[in-house]
Amino acid sequence: MLFSMWIPIFGLGIVFVGICVLVGRELDTPFLLALAGLGAITTFLRLAIIRAYFRAGPIGDFDALRRWERRYAIGNYASAILLALLNVVAISAHYPLLHLITVSLVFSFGAGIVSRTSVRPKICVISLLIATIPTIAALALHAFDAHAIPLHAELFLVEAFIVTMITALSLQTVVHLYRSAVEHHTAQHDMAKLARTDALTGLSNRLLLREQFQLHTAMALRAKNQVALHFLDLDGFKAVNDRYGHPAGDALLEQVARRLEGMVRIEDVVSRLGGDEFIVLQVGLRDDTEAELLARRIIREISKPYLVDDVSMSISVSVGIATAPKLGVELERLLACADAALYRAKTGGKARALFCVEADAAIADMAA
Q1: Looking at the structure, do residues 30 and 167 belong to the same domain, yes or no?
Q2: Percentage helix, strand, coil, to 5, in the chain?
Q3: Rounded to 10 degrees, what is the CA torsion of 159, 164, 165, 169?
Q4: In DSSP terms, which residues pair with 202 in a beta bridge?
Q5: Is 346 within the bounds of a domain?
Q6: Could you tell me the end-to-end alpha-carbon distance of the chain, in angstroms, rounded to an integer?
Q7: Same-domain status, 74 and 118
């Protein structure tokens, strides 16, 4: 959002420079002409920063984004300082139409930064206060200058009060917009997380598994290593569900999920496809023996007793293993291959781990 709108910056810069040149020449005030030059330079640099940001392309590095944010903030602060100086000069010169225009510029500047930069409240608040506090002070001080105009002091004090109140309201608006933005982005994050995680166990679901599989498979091809897809199906889970009910079955599945997470490395992925079917994506393998060792460990750990509502329960697990890129780099084919190997493991006695062989791959190809 900070870099999304260049037109307000350009427009405000043109108006600022025009006023400074016009009034500086009329009142023969070199300071205003100097402000015009500074305003032109500041506007040009701010627009150049915006252009450079977009030419840099997508920026994923957090530190780099912080640097761009600081550049934007410095430009904002510079514009605020120039506006404040213009108002101090205009108000001290007692040129009512001029100071009406310059105070209006402050209001325009404030409205713009509140709408654009409320997502960064520190930048927004500092910029707003830099522009308004000197303006309020100049209005209040000018009220005490002797002048023949009726209600001169009272009206300038009222104007100072109005600018103060609008500043306070703007600050409150910043707080509201920032909270709304945080709630909006939090909701987006939560929705994205829900779309990619299993509601019961918190593990990744098929969508996130696909994303992670594509990422790690591409890395494996570059590094010339392998990834292994372990297709898990719990043995005896249906009997637990039938005997103790679905709540106990759900609690058991959650414990299985936690055990699986505790067995794998941080870069590996544990997913639940649904029911009592789980996937473990093991990455960075040099050979099949590493996949076999993990599968045996999974069988050993998952087969240990569980305690659900003070009731001891026992299940086991069968595992089918398919590796990429040996068997291809398409997730659905690898899942089908691992599922065929899993079927052989279950029919051969359960609590076993088998690799996908040519016959399994043929079955997977026919199913496809």
Answers
A1: yes
A2: 70, 10, 20
A3: 140
A4: none
A5: yes
A6: 46
A7: yes
Together in a domain, 189 and 210: no
Distance CA 223, CA 196 (A): 27
Specify the CATH number for the domain of residue 319.
3.30.70.270
Which amino acid is residue 132, in one-letter code?
Answer: T
The reply to whether 134 and 222 lie within a common domain is no
Domain that holds residue 190: 7-194
- Is 218 in the same domain as 166? no
Query: Is 11 domain-assigned?
Result: yes
DSSP secondary-structure letter at 315?
-
Please provide the DSSP assignment of 63-106 as one string. HHHHHHHHHHHHHHHHHHHHHHHHHHHHHHTT-HHHHHHHHHHH
Query: What is the model's pTM?
Result: 0.60
Tell me, yes or no, whether 122 and 212 share the same domain. no
Residues 178 and 314 in one domain: no
Of the candidates 2, 119, 118, the residue with the CA atom closest to the CA atom of residue 54: 2
Which tokens hold the place of 35? 């402000």
| pLDDT (tens place) for every residue of the chain, 368 residues total | 778 778 889 999 999 999 999 888 888 889 999 999 999 999 999 999 999 988 887 776 788 888 999 999 999 999 999 999 999 988 887 777 887 888 888 988 888 888 888 888 999 999 999 999 999 999 899 888 777 677 878 888 998 999 999 999 999 988 888 888 888 777 777 676 667 788 899 899 988 899 899 999 999 888 889 999 999 999 999 999 899 999 999 999 999 999 999 999 999 999 998 899 999 999 999 989 999 999 999 999 999 999 998 999 999 999 999 999 988 889 999 999 999 999 999 988 889 999 998 887 787 777 65
Radius of gyration of the chain (CA): 34
Residues 153 and 287 in one domain: no
